[in-house]
Design goal:
Length: 202
């Protein structure tokens, strides 16, 4: 799939904001802990990706009602849904000057269309040494998922099933889109939010 940049200027993919709040000390401390001074760009992406994928629990997997809404909250509580986990990865990498954006998929909520649909969030990172954007998904490799950070090909948590009317949206957004951040802001019970209150299309 040909990815489409929301902005051609990569500086837009390096900014801190309310949700990607890498100006917070908790984020900066984690960056210092995760990255060695001699790490190159690819090593930093791999370490950050695997940390968020494996060490930050997806809220549904642990049946947590807590709603985390910013990168710093995700790091503090070590949990979040895909919208929130993607914020943390963006914060960790942007803090190191690595352009990171937000991408989305429309997926079945369960395994079949009858379960309904939801918007799923993932990230895209820019590898300057090969001038290439790569999508990666920190959702968490539970229940047979096998998302990886690979240079030569994409390996996401959820391959799209077009026959089920699932959709890969090609745009790389500079900020988390409003329908996802508003969903987090408007809900206080994460389990109920996932069951019935996630957006279903962009």
């Amino acid at each position: 799939m040909n990815l489409i940049l929301e902005y051609k200027n990569l500086s837009n993919y390096l900014l801190a904001d309310k949700y990607v709040d890498f100006n917070k000390k908790i984020i900066q401390n984690k960056v210092s802990e995760l990255f060695s001074d001699n790490f190159d760009e690819i090593q930093k992406i791999k370490v950050a990706f695997e940390y968020v994928r494996d060490e930050i629990s997806h809220s549904w997997d642990i049946q947590s009602k807590r709603v985390t809404r910013t990168a710093s909250e995700v790091l503090k509580y070590k949990e979040g849904i895909c919208y929130a986990k993607s914020m943390l990865l963006a914060a960790l990498l942007r803090c190191q000057g690595i352009p990171t954006g937000f991408c989305y998929q429309r997926l079945t909520l369960g395994d079949i269309p009858e379960t309904g649909y939801c918007i799923h969030a993932l990230n895209a990172v820019f590898l300057s040494n090969i001038n290439k954007w790569i999508r990666i998904d920190t959702r968490g490799n539970t229940n047979g998922r096998n998302a990886q950070f690979l240079i030569d090909r994409e390996q996401l948590a959820f391959p799209i099933r077009a026959e089920y009317d699932e959709v890969d949206y090609p745009t790389i957004f500079a900020k988390p889109i409003k329908i996802t951040t508003q969903t987090l802001e408007d809900n206080t019970d994460c389990i109920e939010m996932i069951k019935s209150k996630l957006p279903t299309s962009l």
